[in-house]
Amino acid sequence: MERRIYLDHAAAMPVRPEVARFGRGFPDGFIGNPSTLYREGLAAQEAVSRAREKVAALVGARAPDSIIFTGGATESNNIAIRGTALRNKKSGKNVVASAIEHISVLNPAKDLQKNGFSLTLVPVDRYGTIDLSALDAAVTPETVVTSVHYANNEIGTVEPIREVAAIVHDRGGLFHVDATDAAGRIPIDVERDGIDLLTLSGNQLGGPQGTGALYVRPGVRVQPVLVGGGQERGLRPGTENVVGIACMGEAARITKEEMPEESRRLAAIRDRLISGITGLPEAYLTGHPTERLPHHASFRFSRIEGESIQLAMNMLGIAVATGSACTSRTLEASHVLLAIGLAHEEAHGSMVATLGRANSVDEVPRIVGAVEETIKRLRAITPL
Ligand code: PMP
Fold first, then answer.
1. What is the pairing mode between strands 212-216 and 283-285?
2. Which of 15, 201, 203, 335 most suits a substitution to test ligand 1, by most atoms within 8 Å of the C-beta?
3. What is the CATH number of the domain that holds 318?
4. In this structure, is the dihedral angle defined by the CA atoms of residues 325, 161, 197 and 341, taken in order, positive or negative?
């Protein structure tokens, strides 16, 4: 049997073996509570502090205390959007986001509308790049928080973050960036980029699922979403996931070290995939041709449907995505693909390949061959 090829790293990254070993290194599987003052607790506190420093270093945060550990990117996005809007509502009741944010940004923003906030969604062009003049018109002194992701998970486009930051800060509001898919793939520096709040996923760095972090620039006022104890500066109450946090920290450290080399390697595979697949009949790249994540290749195919592509590729031993894993079971057309101007039927024929450490350039011919076979077979039976 041919070896399986895994091309859905945006949905789940295998935990790095070094990180798994690191996690097993905790003595006898016993972890103290970091809020206590005796030896076992202090050791746990120390592990969390080390992790904070490693995550801070990955994104250029000077103060490690500006990193809050959470249960994942969804939770970080909720704290960033709800927490800043509710805490700072005296300065305005408008929220701005790009039209192609992840649902874990869009849904809390829509939820705020029930609490008297207005939401302005800013359009993107056909590549998924935010329309800066529309943004300029959308952000007003009433805008408490503006959320634009570093890069999109469905189409791979990297946004002009520094230009966005300049517009947001000109109006005096806060700037939140969801860097779930970009962190560890392209250099991020919260200070240089002008970011007030930054969402990170532990798994996307090769750490465990269900771990995440939120960078909160010192001085930014945020209200907790969950209330309870004073852990994580009161922003994420509850006993810390110590091993998960420690492993996320170690994953961030290794990722930072490997990034320049690994991103170059993945970009070369990506480019071969793109040129192979866009050479097939009625196959098109989605997202930006050059301003895209190094591990991300996304396509659409006329007259076929994403779920069928996923199932057919699976039969050929290859795991690919069709849009975002978070919405794929809803069978609704992706809001991202509609926002870049695709018609509903076009938006349904999408395939996303996100690369990782186990992929190699030798796999490209087999992947392109499988896509060719898949689209030919599906088109022969389609009623479209
Ligand atoms: N934001 C973005 C941009 C994402 O791609 C994802 C995951 N696909 C999330 C947030 C949510 O991550 P999680 O499911 O780990 O909370």
1. unpaired
2. 201
3. 3.90.1150.10
4. negative
- Domain holding 269, by residue range, is 5-13+259-381
Give the Cα separation of 152 and 350 in Å (integer): 15
Question: CB of 147 within 8 A of CB of 173?
Answer: no
211 pocket-lining for ligand 1 (C-beta < 6 Å): no
Active-site residue, 326 included = yes
pLDDT in tens, 229-276: 999 999 999 999 999 999 999 999 999 999 999 999 999 999 999 999
Task: Identify the domain boundary among 254, 271, 287.
Answer: 254
Judge whether residue 384 has pLDDT over 80. no
What's the number of domains the chain is made of? 2
190 Cα: distance to centroid of ligand 1 (angstroms): 19
- Region 352-364: mean pLDDT is 97
Mean pLDDT over residues 74-83, rounded?
A: 98
Residue in this structure with the two tokens 């077979």, named with its chain if needed? 377
Q: What is the CATH number for 24? A: 3.40.640.10
Q: Could you give phi then psi for residue 100, rounded to 5 degrees? A: -110, 25
Average pLDDT over residues 65-75: 98
362 and 286 part of one domain: yes
Q: 63 and 158: one domain?
A: yes
Average pLDDT rounded to a whole number, residues 191-208: 98
Q: Mark whether 21 and 9 lie in a shared domain.
A: no
pLDDT band of 104, cuts 50, 70, 90: very high
Which of 15, 69, 102 has most ligand 1 atoms within 8 Å of CB, for mutation? Answer: 102
